[in-house]
Specification:
heterodimer; A: about 800 residues; alpha/beta; Aldehyde Oxidoreductase, domain 4; Aldehyde Oxidoreductase, domain 3; 3 domains; 7-stranded mixed sheet; 19 helices; 35 strands; about 25% strand; globular; B: about 160 residues; alpha+beta; Ubiquitin-like (UB roll); DNA polymerase, domain 1; 2 domains
Chain lengths: ~800, ~160
C-alpha cells in the first residue's frame, strides 16, 4: 500500500512510501479500503475548538476558592552573600498570610542529578539578579507585592563574574559555587574517537575557525504559573510545566514527601520551547506555603521574572579545526566549546556534551576530538532551549565547511555530500544511525530553491545548510532502567480513555496520542478521551523535551492499543463465532460487532478492561560507555536542510530574508497540519536567533527583560516559508514517524549567515547578525583587513587529557 | 460602579481606578479567555475590541470604559456557530499553544470588519502588534485570508 499524500502545504517527497511490515505488524488495521484512516491526515488539533474560543484553562486561569497569592522577592544583586533576612515587618502587613525564607526548605535541587545546586529560596548567597530569596503569600497579589518591599535582606556584595573569560580566571572574591572549588568551571569534557592527529597528518588541507553564538531566551507567550493545594495529606500542584515528572521529583525531594503523596498536573500550556523543563523555585515555594497555610496558593510570574528564570540558550564560543583531503573528504575534526552557563547547572552538563555530540551524526568523521567547558557566571541560569546545545555547534560547523569548500575551490554542497552519514551505520562516537534521508532533504531543498543555479549579484544571496537532531534522548535525566513513556488505555461503559504522562505544550502531543489510538482501535479521534500530564492519574512520561514524545509516547500508545484491540477482537470472535484472524478493526467496528458491542462482550467475558504499553529505547543505540556517552544516542535521527534567500544592504547593513526553503526528514507525517506548524515555527525561531534575539547583560544586569526590547520577528518580519517533507518511514518510529519539533530550526541559522556571505562576500561569524556587525565586516574588508566580524581567539581552557574511545569496528560501523 | 457591555451583555462592576480592563475581564467578570503575556502593552496577547477598535486591555483603565462595548474571544462565536476566523484558525493550524490566539483573533476581526478583502501585507501589518512564538505567523496569515474569502462568499 502507499502512504497517504498528506502534505497540506508542503510537497511530499515520499520515496519509499510503503510501510515496512516490521513497523506495522498487523495488516488488519489497514483493511478498511487498505489505507490508514486517521494517521497521515491533515486535521485540526484535538483541542482546537477550546483554543479558538478561549475555553482552554491555562494555569493562570485556574483559581480555587480561598486562594492566596504568592510573590517572590528576588535579588537585586548579581553576586552577594546573604547575611540575614528580616521578614518581621512584612509579616505584619494586613492581608499577609505567610512569609517564607529559604531556611524552611534548604534542600538543594536541580533538573539534573549531577547539578543539584539550587535552592527554592537562596539561603547563603545569591548568584544572579532575579534569584528568589523570600516569598510572601497574601490575600491578593498587590498586597503580597507591597509586603515583599518590607522584607529586609542584608547583603554583602561580591564581585560578579560576567563573562567566559572572567570565569576562567581565578575568582576575585570567591567562586560562584563552593563545589567548583577554586574556579568557576562547572564542567569539563574531553573525548577523542579515533586517531585525530593521524587524521590531520593525512590531510591535504587543515583549517581553523572561531565562532560565537549569543544566548537567547524562549519567550513563551504564557508566563509561568502554578497553584498548589495541600489537603488530607496530599499535595497537588497544577503548573504550566513541560515535565510534570521533573516537578514531581523535585517537590518530593525538597519537601520530604513520598512521591505517592505528591501529584503534579501539567495544565494546558502556553508555550515552552525548553523554558519549562526545569522544576522552578515558585513551584516549590507555593507547595511549601500550601502545606504551612492549608490554603490554595497561586503564583504567576511577571514577564520580567520569566526572563530571570530563563534556562535559555547558552552563549557558546567555539573553535573548530578540520583536516580534509584534496577531494573534500574529512579526515579529522577537533571541536572546542566554551559555554556561559549562568548561575546554576540546570541541564548544562548535558548541554556541554550536546555541543559536541551531533557533529558526527551529520558528517562521517573518521576521527573526532571534542573538548567542552561550561562555566558559571552571575547571570540567569542557561538551560535547554529548542535544539538544546546543538544550534550553536551547527552554526559553527556549517559555516566552517563553507569556508573549507572555498579553500578547496569546491561547491559547498558537494563537500558536504562527500561526507554525509549513511543510513544504517554507526558514527565514530558510537551513535546508531538507522533511517537517514539527509541526501533526500538536500536534493529536495536544492531543487525547490534553485540554489545551484542562483545568479550571484551584489547584495543578494542564498545560503545552504543541513543538520541532524534526536528523536528523543536515549537516556533519562536520572539513571534508571524504567520505561521512558507509558500509556494505559481503559475501555468500558464510559468509552475509551487514554492515560499518558505526556504533556501537550502546543506541539500537539495529545493529538498524536488520539490519532494513534483511534487508528489502532478503528475509531475516530473524537472517540478517544485523553488524560495526560498528570502524575497522580497517568503513568509516567518523562516530559516534553528532546523531541521525544511522538516517538516514545507514540510507541507506548500503539502497544497499549494493540493489546486492547486483541482483547476486543477475541471477545468479538467468541461472541460472533467469527475467526479472530478474519476480523477487521475499522470504521467503529470490531469484525461483525460495533465497537460498543465488542466492549460489552469483552466486559462480560473478562471484567474490567485495561491495557498498558511502554517504551524504552533499545540498548544498541549507543556504542562504548564513557562519561558523557549518555548524551547523543537516540532511537532515531531526523535530518533537515535549508536554503535561505536574502538581500543584504551594504550601505545600512540591514538584512532582509525573502524566502526560506526547508526540507525535513519526518519519517512519516502523522498529521501534516501539525507538522507544518512545527517546521515553520522552527524556521521562525531560527531566524530570530540568526538576526535579532539576544539575552545580554550589562554588569550582571539583564539588558532588556521585556517583550518590547527583546527583539523577536513579528508578522511583518517573516519571509515566505516553503516546507518539503521527506517521508521515509523509520523502522522503529510510530507508523514510521520521527521528530519535527526541533530539527528544522537548526540549519536556518548558518544558512542565513552563508547567504549574507553570498550577497556581500563577508563572514559574520557571530549571531545574531546585526547591521552593525555587517558594516564592521565590510569596513574591515575596505581597509584591507579580514572580510569578517566575529571572535578572534578561543581562550586557554584547562581541559583534562582526552578520554580515548575506540571507534566502532568495521563490522558494527555498518549496521 | 462601572457600567459596560461585554460581548453584548450588560455588566455593573466595581473597579478601582488603576485596575485594567484585562484585570476586570479576568478577575471580576471571570472571562479568562483574554490572556496576558506582559501586562505592559508589549505582546498583544490581551487584545480585545473596544467599540470595535483593537486595544491592549492591559493598558485600558476604567475611565475609558464607562458605557463602552467590549468584545473578547468569548464573544466571537454565535452560540455553537464559530466565527469564520475561528473556523479558519482551527482548519489551518493557526493556533498551536493557543496563548496568543485570542489576541490574534480580535486583531484580525478588527481588520476584516474594516477591510473585507485585505492583502497579505495588510493582514501582516494588522497582526504586527501580536507576538506568536509557535507558528512563525504563516498559518495565521493564511487563516485570516481564508476567513475573509469565506466571509465574502457568505455575503
Amino acid at each position: 500500500m502507499s502512504a497517504p499524500r498528506g502534505g497540506a502545504n508542503g510537497r511530499l517527497a515520499s520515496e519509499s512510501a510503503t510501510i515496512e511490515s516490521a513497523t506495522i505488524e498487523s495488516a488488519t488495521i489497514e483493511s478498511a479500503g487498505g489505507a490508514l484512516r486517521v494517521v497521515g491526515k491533515a486535521m485540526p488539533r484535538v483541542d482546537a475548538v477550546s483554543k479558538v474560543t478561549g475555553r482552554t484553562v491555562y494555569a493562570d486561569d485556574l483559581t480555587f476558592p480561598g486562594t492566596i497569592h504568592c510573590v517572590l522577592l528576588r535579588s537585586p544583586h548579581p553576586h552577594a552573600r546573604i547575611r540575614g533576612v528580616d521578614v518581621r515587618e512584612a509579616a505584619g502587613v494586613p492581608g499577609v498570610v505567610a512569609v517564607l525564607t529559604g531556611a524552611a526548605m534548604p534542600t538543594r535541587f536541580g533538573v539534573s542529578p549531577s547539578s543539584e545546586e539550587e535552592q527554592a529560596l537562596a539561603t547563603e548567597k545569591v548568584r544572579y539578579v532575579g534569584e528568589p530569596v523570600a516569598a510572601v503569600a497574601a490575600r491578593d497579589e498587590a498586597t503580597a507585592r507591597e509586603a515583599c518591599k518590607k522584607i529586609h535582606v542584608d547583603y554583602e556584595l561580591l564581585e560578579p563574574v560576567t563573562s567566559i573569560d572572567q570565569a576562567l580566571e581565578v575568582p576575585m572574591d570567591e567562586p560562584i559555587h563552593a563545589a567548583s572549588k577554586d574556579s568557576n568551571i562547572h564542567r569539563l569534557a574531553a573525548l577523542e574517537f579515533g586517531d585525530v592527529e593521524e587524521g590531520f597528518a593525512a590531510s591535504d588541507h587543515v583549517r581553523e575557525d572561531v565562532f560565537f553564538y549569543e544566548g537567547s531566551t524562549h519567550l513563551a507567550m504564557e508566563e509561568h504559573s502554578a497553584t498548589a493545594t495541600f489537603a488530607d495529606g496530599q499535595l497537588t500542584v497544577w503548573s504550566s510545566t513541560q515535565s510534570p515528572h521533573n516537578v514531581h521529583r523535585a517537590l518530593s525531594s525538597v519537601l520530604g514527601l513520598p512521591m505517592g503523596h505528591v501529584r503534579v498536573v501539567a495544565t494546558p500550556h502556553g508555550g515552552g520551547f525548553g523554558g519549562k523543563v526545569d522544576p522552578c523555585a515558585h513551584e516549590i515555594v507555593i507547595a511549601k506555603l500550601a502545606m504551612t497555610t492549608g490554603r490554595p496558593v497561586k503564583c504567576t510570574l511577571t514577564r520580567e521574572e520569566v526572563f530571570y528564570n530563563h534556562r535559555g540558550r547558552h552563549p557558546v564560543l567555539m573553535w573548530v579545526r578540520t583536516g580534509v583531503t584534496r577531494d573534500g573528504r574529512i579526515r579529522a575534526m577537533h571541536f572546542r566549546t566554551a559555554l556561559d552557563g549562568g548561575a546554576h547547572g540546570s541541564l548544562g552538563a548535558a548541554t556541554t556534551y550536546y555541543t559536541g555530540a551531533l557533529q558526527p551524526a551529520t558528517y562521517d568523521l573518521p576521527a573526532y576530538r571534542f573538548e567542552g567547558c561550561r562555566v558559571f557566571t552571575n547571570k540567569a541560569p542557561c538551560g535547554p532551549k529548542r535544539g538544546h546545545g546543538t544550534p550553536q555547534p551547527r552554526f559553527a560547523l556549517e559555516l566552517h565547511l563553507d569556508k573549507l569548500a572555498e579553500d578547496l575551490g569546491m561547491d559547498p554542497v558537494e563537500l558536504r555530500r562527500r561526507n554525509y552519514v549513511r543510513p544504517n551505520s554507526r558514527t565514530v562516537n558510537g551513535l546508531r544511525i538507522t533511517s537517514c534521508a539527509i541526501e533526500n532533504v538536500t536534493a529536495e531543498v536544492l531543487a525547490a530553491s534553485g540554489y545551484s543555479r542562483r545568479r550571484r549579484r551584489d547584495g543578494h544571496g542564498q545560503g545552504f545548510a543541513v543538520s541532524a537532531y534526536l528523536c528523543g534522548a536515549g537516556s533519562p535525566m536520572y539513571l534508571n532502567r524504567m520505561p521512558h513513556s507509558e500509556v494505559n488505555i481503559e475501555v468500558g461503559r464510559g468509552g475509551v480513555t487514554v492515560l499518558c504522562g505526556a504533556t501537550d505544550i502546543g506541539q500537539g502531543s495529545d493529538s498524536v496520542l488520539a490519532t494513534l489510538v483511534a487508528e489502532e482501535l478503528g475509531l475516530e479521534r473524537e472517540d478517544v478521551r485523553l488524560v495526560t500530564g498528570d502524575t497522580g492519574l497517568t503513568p509516567v512520561d518523562l516530559g516534553s523535551y528532546s523531541s521525544r514524545v511522538t516517538f516514545m509516547a507514540g510507541n507506548a500508545a500503539i502497544e497499549a492499543a494493540r493489546k486492547m484491540r486483541a482483547t476486543l477482537v477475541a471477545a468479538a470472535a467468541e461472541r460472533s463465532g467469527a475467526q479472530p484472524t478474519e476480523m477487521t478493526v475499522a470504521g467503529g467496528k470490531i469484525g461483525p460487532l460495533s465497537f460498543e458491542e465488542a466492549v460489552v462482550a469483552a466486559e462480560e467475558l473478562y471484567g474490567s478492561l485495561g491495557s498498558g504499553g511502554s517504551y524504552a529505547p533499545p540498548p544498541d543505540i549507543s556504542g562504548s560507555k564513557y562519561r558523557g556517552s549518555a548524551v547523543g544516542p537516540s532511537p532515531a535521527f531526523s535530518f533537515s536542510a535549508a536554503v535561505v534567500d536574502l538581500d543584504a544592504d551594504r550601505v545600512t547593513g540591514e538584512v532582509r530574508v525573502n524566502k526560506v526553503w526547508i526540507a525535513h526528514d519526518i519519517g512519516r507525517a502523522l498529521n501534516p497540519l501539525l507538522v507544518r506548524g512545527q517546521v515553520e515555527g522552527g524556521v521562525y525561531m531560527g531566524l530570530g536567533e540568526a538576526l535579532m534575539e539576544a539575552q545580554v547583560y550589562r554588569n550582571g544586569l539583564l539588558h532588556h527583560p521585556s517583550v518590547l526590547e527583546y527583539k523577536t520577528p513579528l508578522s511583518t518580519d517573516m519571509p515566505e516559508i516553503e516546507h518539503l517533507l521527506v517521508e521515509q518511514p523509520d523502522p522503529e518510529g510510530p507508523y514510521g514517524a520521527k521528530e519535527v519539533g526541533q530539527g528544522p530550526l537548526l540549519p536556518v541559522v548558518p544558512a542565513v549567515v552563508s547567504a549574507i556571505h553570498d550577497a556581500l562576500g563577508i563572514w559574520v561569524d557571530e549571531v545574531p547578525v546585526t547591521p552593525e556587525k555587517v558594516l564592521r565586516a565590510l569596513d574591515s574588508r575596505a581597509k584591507g583587513g579580514d572580510p569578517r566580524t566575529g571572535p578572534r581567539a578561543f581562550p586557554m581552557i584547562p581541559y583534562p587529557p582526552c578520554v580515548k574511545v575506540a571507534p566502532p569496528d568495521a563490522a558494527s560501523a555498518a549496521l | 460602579m462601572l457600567r459596560l457591555r461585554v460581548n453584548g451583555e450588560s455588566y455593573e462592576t466595581l473597579a478601582e481606578s488603576c485596575e485594567t480592563l484585562l484585570e476586570i475581564l479576568r478577575e471580576r467578570l471571570g472571562l479568562t479567555g483574554t490572556k496576558h503575556g506582559c501586562e505592559l502593552g508589549e505582546c498583544g496577547a490581551c487584545t480585545v475590541l473596544l467599540d470595535g477598535m483593537p486595544v491592549l486591555s492591559c493598558l485600558v483603565l476604567p475611565d475609558q470604559l464607562e458605557g463602552a462595548e467590549v468584545t473578547t474571544v468569548e464573544g466571537l462565536a454565535e452560540g455553537p456557530a464559530l466565527h469564520p476566523l475561528q473556523e479558519a484558525f482551527m482548519a489551518l493550524g493557526a493556533s498551536q499553544c493557543g496563548y496568543c490566539t485570542a489576541g490574534m483573533l480580535l486583531s484580525a476581526k478588527a481588520l476584516v470588519d474594516e477591510q473585507p478583502d485585505p492583502t497579505r501585507e495588510e493582514i501582516r501589518a494588522a497582526l504586527a502588534g501580536n507576538v506568536c512564538r509557535c507558528t512563525g505567523y504563516a498559518s495565521i496569515v493564511d487563516a485570516v485570508a481564508q476567513a475573509t474569502n469565506t466571509m465574502r462568499g457568505a455575503r
